[in-house]
Amino acid sequence: MKASRISLLVLAGSLSAALVVVAQGPVSSGSETVARPKKGTATSPDAPAEPPEKAKIPSQFKKGKELPEGVATYSTDAVTVTVDVSVLDNKGHFIPNIPAGNFRVLEDNVPQKVSQVSKGEAPLTIALVIEFSGLFQQVYSEPWFQTLQAAYGFIETLKKEDNVAIVAYDLRPEILSDFSTDRSEAQDALSRMRFPGFSEANLFDALTDTAQRMQDIEGRKAILLISSGVDTFSKLNYGEARKAIQNAGVPIYAIGLMQAYRDIMYSYGALSDSQNMTFLQADNQLRTFTKESGGMAFFPHFYGEFPQIYRGISEVLRSQYVLTYTPSNTARDGKFRKIKVELVNPENNQPLRVNDEKGKPVKYEILAKSGYTAPKQVE
Question: Is residue 3 part of a domain?
Answer without folding.
Answer: no
